[in-house]
Amino acid sequence: MTARTAFSLCVLTGRLAAAVLMLPVLAGQGVLAGYAHAEPPPGAPAHAPAQNWSFNGPLGHFDLAAVQRGYAVFAGVCASCHSLTQVQFSDLGGMGLTPEQVAVLAASWQVAAGRDAEGHLTHRKALPDDALPKPYAGPDAARAANRGAVPPDLSRITQVYPGGADRVYALLTGYAPATPHAGVAQPEAGFANPYAIGHRTAMPPPLRDNAVAYADGTQPTAQQEARDVTTFLAWISSPHADDKRRLGVGVVLYLCFLACLLVILKRRIWSHVEK
Ligand code: HEC
């Protein structure tokens, strides 16, 4: 057997081994696919339609203009009930803001600053290294203000919420058309929404047309606001995703380059061996 045949045999054996190793994985996927097609239990949330997000896939990226608009929706609407405890104002610089713009943005929020000499709670303008303030002092206050439901922290919501960004968007836009908006007395059983567990949620429909004014002139329809705030929440869940993707693409290109070099090198080294 010549050296080259031996080499080819090695490669073939390697491929066979890889194929055998992949079998359980493929079988597992089959099992999971079967499970996904099983009849869902009653009250299970409807399947959220897949959206065409710019940040989807290994080559995706965040549309920072949409992220900034989404921040405006969060600050103007969601922040009255939901916290973002994992986020400091300085993190928001990653939306494409200069340190000066971050300082101005932080100063538009008030944070607790202890008690004064008479024991009254005092507040001051937030600084860039402050965390975003929570809307409620604690879970009891949150429950009291929301009929027993605690609005979840949204710092990582698109990663921890089953269905991710698609389902957050579907939930925000999925209320029955006749459902009244936030501020209207909440029905005892909650608001009808096919994307909530049990098809009811304690969250009043938070969005409506013109709920915020966009600085870039985009029309603030309820759909647009839902899209933008979901983009913001996906970005804040994983603010370094774009850097990681860029690094990943670089590594793959480098490995391809290295593989080409190694093929050339191998051919040179084995060139004097007869077939
Ligand atoms: C009036 C208060 C209020 C506002 C404003 C509000 N929410 Fe909520 N939200 C809630 C409450 C209460 C819940 C918990 C619902 C439940 O457990 O049934 C909730 C739950 C959620 C959930 C999880 C849903 C689930 O099924 O558990 C998401 C996602 C969410 N809110 C996003 C948002 C976004 C985005 C905004 C801003 C556009 C927003 N909320 C504005 C009160 C609010």
Q: What attributes does this structure have?
A:
275 residues; mainly alpha; Cytochrome Bc1 Complex, Chain D, domain 2; two-stranded antiparallel sheet; 8 helices; 45% helix; binds heme C
Describe this structure in words.
This protein has 275 residues and is mainly alpha-helical. The protein folds into 2 domains: 64-242, Cytochrome c-like domain (Cytochrome Bc1 Complex, Chain D, domain 2, Orthogonal Bundle); 243-275. It is 45% helix and 5% strand. Helix 2 (64-76) crosses helix 7 (222-237). The longest helix has 34 residues, at 3-36. The radius of gyration is 26 Å and the shape is extended. The structure holds heme C. The site of heme C has 26 residues, from helix 6. Heme C is lined by residues 73, 77-78, 80-82, 146, 149, 151-152, 157, 161, 168, 171-172, 182, 190, 196-197, 201-204, 206-207, 229.
